[in-house]
Design a protein that fits this description.
The protein is mainly beta. It has helices spanning 4-17, 68-71, and strands at residues 36-40, 43-44, 47-56, 59-63, 78-80, 85-90, 96-103, 106-107, 110-111, 116-118, 124-134, 137-147.
Length: 149
């Protein structure tokens, strides 16, 4: 009988540690980061959300994704002219917006101004990545374009 007391105490401690003081129901979902509107000459550019983190009401979520080429492998690239301007719009304006192209297994992000990102001049298929950050999280969004002269 004395052997059951340590087990009971351990079980009580484990159960007590599960309560985080939150009034949220454990099945309540956490919102996702705001989705952008990506357009080139008023044509919508499809995208997929990549890695993101988001928190609200004392709860958070972090989601990692595959590399951008794998993420958009099923997306048809949007054909654009050289040096086309990609417009990036958000309903909930981020504190930071950066953009870059996937090259050599990485992205060199650059701050974008006026919510526009100038696409490449040379012919080819490119994978673009948008990074946006808000006070409660950040996210990446990946798209595919085909520059054709």
């Amino acid at each position: 009988m004395n052997n059951i007391y340590p087990l009971f105490l351990a079980l009580l401690l484990l159960c007590g540690c599960q309560f985080d003081g939150s009034t949220n129901h454990p099945n309540e979902s956490i919102s996702l980061p705001p989705m952008p509107t990506l357009t080139i000459q008023e044509k919508n550019v499809p995208f997929k959300m990549g890695t993101y983190s988001w928190s609200e009401n004392g709860r958070g979520i972090v989601s990692d994704s595959v590399d951008p080429p794998e993420l958009v492998k099923d997306l048809e690239p949007v054909t654009v002219h050289p040096n086309a301007k990609l417009h990036v719009g958000f309903g909930d304006k981020p504190l930071v917006i950066k953009a870059g192209l996937w090259e050599n297994d990485g992205v060199e992000f650059k701050d974008i101004s006026d919510h526009t990102f100038t696409l490449p001049e040379d012919d080819g298929v490119y994978i673009g990545v948008i990074y946006a950050s808000w006070p409660v999280g950040d996210a990446t969004f990946v798209f595919k374009i085909h520059v054709r002269k």
